[in-house]
Design goal:
The chain has about 80 residues and is mostly helical. It has a domain of about 45 residues. About 65% of the residues lie in helices and about 0% in strands. It is built from four helices and no strands. Helix 2 runs antiparallel to helix 3 and helix 2 packs parallel to helix 4. The longest helix is centred in the middle third of the chain and has 19 residues.
């Protein structure tokens, strides 16, 4: 007879609450970094390239989340004023 605590039990409601939080944290960090680069006077294109390079570097040992990767240009657009190059 085995001990009850040897068998891991997964709390499914906890997992449902956590789903999507990882991607949301990445999006929030990208938006904050883009806002900082905009305030520092970076151009939109240079900031976009820097943020894409940063995400690639963050995930060099694993797969980049595709949904977040596709959203990087729109997140940069939110941080930069209209007409900024």
């Amino acid at each position: 007879m085995g001990f009850d605590w040897w068998s891991p039990k997964r709390n499914e409601s906890w997992e449902r609450r956590l789903s999507g939080r990882f991607e949301e944290a990445i999006r929030r960090e990208i938006l904050e970094r883009a806002s900082l680069l905009a305030r520092l006077g970076w151009s939109r294109d240079a900031a976009l390239k820097r943020l894409q390079d940063r995400v690639r570097w963050d995930f060099e040992m694993s797969k980049v989340p595709t949904a977040v990767w596709k959203e990087i240009p729109s997140l940069v657009d939110q941080a930069f004023p209209r007409g900024a190059k």
